[in-house]
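User: Could you check the structure of this?
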Amino acid sequence: MEPENNTRILEFVLLGFSEDPDLQPVVYGLFLFTYLITVLGNLLIVLAIVSDSHLHTPMYFFLSHLSFVDVCFTSTTVPKMLVNIQTKKRVISYAGCITQMYFFLVFVELDNFLLAVMAYDRFVAICHPLHYTIIMSHRLCGLLVLVSWIMSVSHALLQSLMVLRLAFCTDLEIPHFFCELNQVVQLTCSDTFLNDVVMYFALVLLATVPLSGILYSYSKIASSIRAISSAQGKYKAFSTCASHLSVVSLFYCTGLGVYLSSAATHSSHSSATASVMYTVVTPMLNPFIYSLRNKDVKRALKRAFGGKL
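Assistant: Sure, the predicted structure tokens are below.
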């Protein structure tokens, strides 16, 4: 099969979860509900942190960025899928596909880096409490977020440019509900060796480094908590990082589940279904985890709404 030039590609076909028309209203309703809850919940977290001066601390500074990124993360994929179901079309333009893939990579990596940064913040707060305000200065907090953005944007730009160099065949059906990098690369007629090397090297580097930082931070946190003599002191120390630890577990376990299920079943549709967990469900649950387990956030939300919550 002869490859086509990239400039002649008009659109890809997103196959989604099922071709059964009877299931489309159910899928549409579930994803619309989930998307609205995700946007509303995360924006409420941002509003609470911005409006309450008591939450103008490094921990909540990072949390506000994480909530904003989660809104953008979900908005990259779900609205397009909802439009496709509503219009009964499953197509996405070539430019739209590359753009969606780029922003998806940006925000998933930002989630990754911000979780690592938040783990470092908890490490300093628990292991070096007397020097916390000095170490976690406004300058360092801003620098950590800036570096996270630079790393994420650079990685996404590199991967997108690597895809732009490829020529595609006539079979342009993506067995997914969005333009996922690996699925798009599999459609090409070009040699993908260089793309595969860059893709997996970046995956290993950008996944293991932040995860290693998180594991190291929590190993030190666990040691510090064990050294606390009183049970009340241990509980107080643990409660300061319980919400973040829950979000970290949810993000990495669901992301790992996607790759394990894909490798076990060798099914693209199974991978698409598993991807829902970390692309849709995890961003929706994050606000609930932080608000339900955090008295400061709940108080801030009550103040923001005049004590009506």
